[in-house]
Amino acid sequence: MKVATGKIVDGKVVLEGEPLAEGSVVTVVAREDDETFDVSPEEERALLAAIAQAERGEVVSWERLREQLRRFG
Q1: Of 8, 26, 34, 54, which is most buried, counting CB atoms within 10 Å of its CB?
Q2: pLDDT tens digits for 7-60?
Q3: Which pLDDT score, from 0 to 100, does residue 10 have?
Q4: Per-domain residue ranges for the chain?
Q5: Measuring CA to CA, how many Å separate 4 from each of 1, 43, 44?
Q6: b/e for 17-55, b at 16 or more Cβ within 10 A?
Q7: Whole-number pLDDT of residue 42
Q8: CB 6 within 8 A of CB 15
């Protein structure tokens, strides 16, 4: 899974950074301009640690995750 940020331009999502592969299936979550969310200090630390882990490339492939989920499902 990849996380990308972008904007809507002429009704289309335009991503920042590296483009996704042609035909990629994506989910778009749009926040409202005034929308915020609250997290506890522990949740914030966990989120920041997870982001740093992903940025270092310490991720699990979709294929491996799917295999693990099937074993536990």
Answers
A1: 54
A2: 889 998 888 888 888 888 888 877 787 877 788 899 989 989 988 998 898 988
A3: 94
A4: 6-72
A5: 10, 21, 20
A6: eeeeeeeeeeeeeeeeeeeeeeeeeeeeeeeeeeeeeee
A7: 92
A8: yes
Q: pTM for the complete prediction?
A: 0.43
Closest CA to 2 of 63, 55, 70, 41: 55
Q: Which structure tokens are listed for 11?
A: 């009704």
> In angstroms, rounded to a whole number, what is the distance separating the alpha carbons of residues 44 and 19?
28
| Per-residue tokens: 48 | 């920041």
Q: Work out the burial of residue 6: count CB atoms within 10 Å of its CB; fewer than 13 is exposed, 13-18 middle, 19 or more buried.
A: middle
DSSP structural state of residue 6: E
Q: For residue 34, what is the DSSP state?
A: T
Q: Tokens 């992903």 label which residue?
A: 54
